[in-house]
Structure formats: C-alpha cells, structure tokens
C-alpha cells in the first residue's frame, strides 16, 4: 500500500493522494482501503497509481507579481467589477457592502485532465455568521458576466466550486421561527460543487442544496496560516480537497465520478458581498496539466461531450437525502463481514480435519 503514497509529485510535500493512509474520514476511502486489505491486490489503486505527470501551465495560472493583470491586452487575466490587484493578492471584493468582483482567464482551456490549486484568503471584522457571502472558482463556457451566484451569472454552463460563508437557509428558517433540525444543519463556511448546463438555477436562499454534487465544511475565515482549495478533474472524476489547517495536508471534500465537462471553457474566480461583507482574496491560481493514459474509446467519448452533465445525478441526490451510511458504519459492516468469513473458514477447516481424522481412523 505504501506505493500508493510514494507517487512522485513535481512539487513540494503536498501530495494530495497520500490521503488514504493519513486517516481519511470519508467512508468511501475507508471502504476502499479495507477492500484493498482484504483482497491484498493492487488494482484497487490502479486509478490513482497511473503514472501522472504534472506541468504547471503558466497561461492558465495567476500568481505574484500579477504582471499586467487588469491592464488592457497584456495579461492572460482580466478583472471585472470591484476586483483589484495589489502587490500581495487579487482582491475580488473589499470588506464593503454590495460589492462583486471577478478575475477571468482570457484563454479557453483545452486540457483534458487538470488540477487547479487555489491559494485564497477570506477575512474581515464580522463575527461568526455576520459576514458574507463567499467566493467561487469557475470552469465555464461563459466569462465576464455579473450575477447573483457569488458574483457570476446564474444558469452558468460548466463547473462552479463555491466557498459559501453565509448560511442563508438556516437564517431564513430561523426568521420564520421554525426550528432548524440538527440533521440537516451545516456548519458554515461550506465548500460546495455544482455543475450547470445553462438552464439549472443556483438556489441562493437554500445555499445551492438542490443542485449540489457534494461538499464539506471548511473553517476558512480569519486564519493566520495559508488556505488552499484543490480541484482535480481526471478522466471525468471530479475531486475537491482543502488544506486549511496549516498542516500541509489535503483533506477530502468531495469525489465524484462521471462528471462530463467539455473542453474549451474558461477558468475564473469571483466573489460577492451583500449586507454582510468580507475581503475575498485570491493569492494564486495554479493550473497543472496532467497527462493520463486513455483508450481511443475514452478519447472518442470525450469528444462527444458538448453539454456539461453528471452521470446518475438522481442517485447522487438520493444518496445525499438518505444521508447514506456513515464511513464508520461502512467500516464496521466490512469488518464484521470479514470476521464472519474468517469464522466460516475456521469452522470449515475444523470440520474438514475432523472428517479427515475419522476417515483415517476408519482406514487403519
Ligand atoms: C439540464 O439539466 C436539467 C436537470 O438535470 C435537465 O432537465 C435539462 O434537460 C438539461 N438541459 C440541457 C440543455 O441539457
Ligand atoms: C435560469 O433557468 C431557469 C430554468 O430554466 C429559468 O426559469 C430562469 O429564468 C433562468 N434564469 C436566468 C437568470 O436566466
Ligand atoms: Ca450562502
């Protein structure tokens, strides 16, 4: 299993794919790790083990000193709305009411497999839940549009990953003097991913729950250390991880197969404030190209993708509504079925040796 961890990464110590051995909390991975132990075969890790090489693509990356960003024509990135560049960051919104700002790549991205590392910072005076509204990272067909979805248009086409810092739904229900049940309660800030096809609306009042692919909570505000978001798209698998504890460790946030995203979309980042506000800063966006082996069939299939979609989206929703089995529950289910199997095997062996012995006795 250690092999899964020693995969060469072209950059420092941040290897997000060491997460399984670092005790991940997501049930699926526990299950996978256990399955690997049981079967003691390596194909489990085949997918992650694919020799992947990474190359930083400067044309899709944004980093200090942000040379030419916001000036006409000379940079790969364009600013919009209230966004502005300083020496240390691209500030999407300042800590003021009713602002929105964005930074968009000028060049459509035709890479098949990529990962985006987002170094960001959300900070302000507001005490807990007296701040808003959050920021978003985009890979969409449209660019440079203003709107209500973290400063971008609604009914967007493509992928949005949101760092939502204000619990609209909870506040709305509280305002109606209804109780907010703990079962559905979420801790904010919350990271959430959504895929739009041009006619799916983001439900702002419900913090996007009806259309989410998954997410996780992430206490990202007012931290002294650096905070990162990691979005990986490889062979239609969308993985989002966060590194917000200052430990240089990636924590799993969501991992969804069957996400179909066309090529040639634009990367961007946007943020919005309302009655409540925060500074929403992007320190860097680093895009890595990944080279992955794929069959001709896969290549052909990918070329057919023209509208973003997610396979089995209904099942995904169903899963989330039922809250599913927790990681622990799955772990114990697997553990006990394993013990059950071993028990059976032992009984069989005992019976067999018994039978063997009595047969020998008969023989002599
Ligand atoms: C977009 O997705 C919705 C919901 O999944 C679906 O009803 C609609 O037909 C899709 N639109 C397009 C253009 O594919
Ligand atoms: C978004 O799409 C929905 C459903 O297709 C539609 O009702 C709504 O008017 C659209 N909103 C915008 C801003 O285009
Ligand atoms: Ca919200």
TrEMBL record:
Tell me, what's a Pfam family for it?
Answer: Lectin_leg-like
- Sorted UniProt keywords: Disulfide bond, Glycoprotein, Golgi apparatus, Lectin, Membrane, Metal-binding, Signal, Transmembrane, Transmembrane helix
Q: Name one GO biological process term.
A: endoplasmic reticulum to Golgi vesicle-mediated transport
Q: Name one GO molecular function term.
A: D-mannose binding
Where does it mainly reside? membrane
Q: Which domain of life is it from?
A: Eukaryota
Q: Where in the cell is it found?
A: Endomembrane system; Golgi apparatus membrane
Q: Which residues cross the membrane?
A: 328-352
Report membrane topology: Single-pass type I membrane protein; Single-pass membrane protein
Residues of the L-type lectin-like domain: 54-290
Q: GO CC terms for this protein?
A: COPII-coated ER to Golgi transport vesicle; endoplasmic reticulum membrane; endoplasmic reticulum-Golgi intermediate compartment; Golgi membrane
Q: Which PANTHER family match?
A: VESICULAR MANNOSE-BINDING LECTIN (PTHR12223), VIP36-LIKE PROTEIN (PTHR12223:SF20)
Name of the protein described by the UniProt record: Lectin, mannose-binding 2-like a isoform X1
Organism in which the protein naturally occurs: Betta splendens
Q: What is the lineage of its organism?
A: Eukaryota, Metazoa, Chordata, Craniata, Vertebrata
Q: Which gene encodes it?
A: lman2la
